[in-house]
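Hello forum,

I keep getting stuck at the same step: I have a sequence, I want structure tokens, and every attempt I make locally crashes halfway through. Rather than fight my setup again tonight, could one of you with a working pipeline run this one for me? It's a single chain of 432 residues.
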Amino acid sequence: MSSGRAFVVGVVLASVAGAVHAEGAQDVASRDHWAQMVARGRTRIAEAVASDEARADSVQARRSGLGGAAAVEARGVDACGGECYGVLEGEIAGGLCEDSTNGGCFGTIPVFGRMEVGVPTCGLLNGQDGAPPIVPACTDTDWYRISLETGASYIIDITAEVDVLIGVVADIGNVPLLYDGDPFAFCADAFDFVDGGLTVLACNRGRTLVSVPTDGEYVFVVFGPGGDIGVAHYEVVINSCAIDCVGSDTEGVLGEVANLGACDSPGWDPVNGGCSDTATLPFDMLQLNVPLCGASDYNGACRDTDWFLVDIPHAGDFDIELTCDRTMDVGVVLGAGGLQYTSSATFCPAVDFASAITVLACTTDALRFNFPSAGTYVVFVAPSFFFDTGPRSYRLRVIDTLPPCPADINRNGTVDLDDLQILLFWFGATSC
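Reply #2:
Ran it on my machine without issues. Output:
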């Protein structure tokens, strides 16, 4: 955790970064911004607590019942009713927030902890009101280095006994800042959290997404609230949302991402753009029970829409399953000529969804749809308008909920001549 001098950051960064970098003006601007950011973070946390005093009182009562400031760091100690089984942060419980375990840019010397993707960290926060100027007030901050890869989104989950501010450190352009091994240079360039960070209320699960521009190490930070909080526990884990495409089909063009330059001009959605475009490949094919991996994008105005034709062999319930690394919509489309697809000329323009769901980032969900008869139907996938922007990947599968007939050897939903030919070809074989 960080030094108790976290909130007199001007002194700390002046002595550390200023001694290493000749660009004094840059250092002053950097530390001034960090000081402002810390103040904003503490204000956000204070406002969140003030908006729900009953919840704050309840949390404090539970913490007091477990010993409050005298609590001992250990797996299983969590005043929010849960347990943390992960890597211990390594800080001494009950100590002052003056140590240098992982104080990052707020420590007397920049020191960072370490996290691994997929491995929970059980951490501590502490703080004290102090008696300025002799004993300064301090609030703990925990800084962790973690290796992330481009091309994948990561989801950060945290639960804490107190209100916290979390985030991945960004440069002045709001781009995740790469840690290149020089802590002093990193602290000089560190400007804010990506998108300002996220405030998480005590005993609530906080969740946020991050993507990085290049492979390498980045820095994740947990800020505790101001005041005499004693010792508070938290659990945090960063998981990859990378889509597993082993054994999957792909879109007509592997890794297709739309050109989002002109939303409604011909060719802006060139691959499987369906009724939204006049491209040469307006609809892609989706095989029943076979997963398909695709890519999409959304820039806040234009979104890449992917349209698929799927042959449904019989009436009944089918699950349209979607896994995505960022939030997306999936549904069955109702065309101008009805639900079944016969041609683009009769189906487009599409009227609406017959049914659809929104699948949240880093999750798998399924829309169960009752197809009225055998035929060809249109399944639609696209980024949701109401969530985050940026590129994303997904895996799509249409699943027949009826168990396959034993005689349906090729599992296409129909017992036909193809199944008989397969049987005759292998008839008499002792092994396959």
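The two ends are 61 Å apart (CA to CA). If your local run keeps crashing, start a new thread with the error log.
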